[in-house]
TrEMBL record:
One of its GO terms (molecular function) is acyl-CoA dehydrogenase activity. Keywords: FAD, Flavoprotein, Oxidoreductase. Residues 4-91 form the Acyl-CoA dehydrogenase/oxidase N-terminal domain. The keyword Flavoprotein applies. Its cofactor is FAD. Gene3D superfamilies: Acyl-CoA dehydrogenase/oxidase, N-terminal domain, Butyryl-CoA Dehydrogenase, subunit A, domain 2, Butyryl-CoA Dehydrogenase, subunit A, domain 3. This is Acyl-CoA dehydrogenase. The keyword Oxidoreductase applies. CDD domains: ACAD (cd00567). Belongs to the acyl-CoA dehydrogenase family. It comes from the Archaea.
Length: 391
């Protein structure tokens, strides 16, 4: 569970880069959604330290990725969300020749942006049987449907879309690109993650090659050597979608750990510097109690998130349950931690001149994407009892 020496070095280098190269842009850079050019610029800069979808040597093992996510999110959760949701870019080469040819230049120049399209307006947390459909027509699929609350939607070139496969009679993911298939978007505003663009996606008879179905693309890439099964996260845990969802849920927990780390550092510094009644407020008992609660939440959340990442890496049978446990508990705890830290700041905690209001907004946002806390509790309950409380 303890980081290796190499992981500590990676953590320290990412922290130094974030503090020196990214933090000076804040909070201004987080006041509105990143444009496509700005998002690409940030992801290109992060690639210099092997972080994000454009990195040549990414930290692909789940535990190291979790540590990196904590450090990026400590400074700017919106950037981590934008990078994480552009993950389909890293799978670009396993999909159809039609899509690869259309975006060869963007891919070579690290100017390709991706997104995951999962949530639907009528379904919310119910992603088991999506209304978005993928109907076979010759050697193509025809995609129809609507997705909402999709990070990167307004700036995405390619979307990995959860849809119901009529031929296989089950859900799968399908890569839909803007150039050859086309889709419409509409931006959405939200409470937190202000720097990360969010929106709706609309698919109207979007035709894609059958090679753009994720399960097929993964199997073909493994069989012809383009993807090494021993190095692929899709090779662990059996079902590629389950593995992906577990990683995404625990990834949300890692972002929350980063937010808690930032809130803790800010609260501790303020408590030791701010004086009331002729002594630092940190010398008052109630402030020390809040610092205790903040640090306890931070350390517990970090341990649970990293333990879950380790289980995902091992393909452990409890990885799905643990990912929902970490997503639900850690994200909720980050709201409590940010709230306590804001309370320590008093009136200054409400001011946009201080970072606490941003930490709180980002933390509060964490409890909903990739499955609400309530859904995570039901997933954990099902995994523990083998009795399903939802259909």
């Amino acid at each position: 569970m303890m980081p290796t020496d190499e992981q500590r070095m990676i953590r320290d280098s990412v922290r130094e880069f974030m503090d020196e190269e990214i933090a000076p842009d804040l909070p201004e850079a987080d006041r509105k959604p990143l444009s496509k050019d700005d998002a690409i610029d940030y992801m290109q800069r992060m690639a210099e330290i092997d972080v994000g979808p454009y990195a040549e040597e990414r930290f692909d093992d789940p535990l190291t990725s979790t540590i990196v996510s904590e450090e990026v999110s400590r400074v700017w959760p919106s950037l981590q969300v934008t990078m994480g949701m552009s993950l389909p870019v890293t799978m670009f080469e396993i999909f159809s020749e039609r899509t690869r040819d259309a975006y060869a230049e963007e891919y070579d120049e690290d100017r390709l942006v991706g997104c995951f399209a999962i949530t639907e307006p009528s379904g919310g947390s119910d992603t088991k049987v999506p209304n978005t459909t993928a109907v076979t027509d010759g050697d193509e699929y025809v995609i129809n449907g609507e997705k909402t609350w999709v990070s990167n939607a307004p700036i995405a070139d390619i979307a990995l879309v959860v849809a119901w496969d009529d031929k296989a009679d089950r859900r799968d993911m399908f890569l839909v690109d803007q150039k050859t298939a086309g889709f419409d978007t509409r931006p959405l505003e939200k409470l937190g993650w202000k720097g990360s663009p969010t929106g709706q996606l609309f698919f109207d008879d979007c035709r894609i090659p059958q090679e753009n179905k994720l399960s097929r693309a993964v199997m073909e890439a493994m069989s012809d050597g383009r993807m090494d099964p021993s190095e692929s996260s899709f090779a662990t845990g059996g079902n590629p979608l389950n593995t992906m969802f577990a990683s995404m849920r625990n990834g949300m927990a890692a972002i929350s750990v980063g937010i808690m780390q930032a809130a803790y550092e800010a609260a501790l510094e303020y408590a030791t510097d701010r004086e009331v009644f002729e002594k630092p407020i940190g010398q008052h008992q109630l402030i020390q109690e809040k610092l205790y609660n903040i640090r306890a939440g931070l350390e517990t959340g970090r341990l649970l998130t990293r333990y879950t990442a380790q289980k995902i890496a091992e393909g452990d049978e409890e990885a799905r349950m643990l990912s929902s446990l970490s997503k639900g508990w850690v994200c909720e705890k980050s709201v409590e931690v940010a709230d306590d830290a804001m309370q320590i700041y008093g009136g200054n905690g409400l001011s946009t001149d201080y970072p606490l209001e941003r930490y709180y907004r980002d933390a509060r946002t964490m409890t909903i994407p990739d499955g609400t806390t309530e859904i995570q509790k039901l997933v954990v309950g099902y995994e523990l009892t083998d009795m399903q409380a939802y259909t």
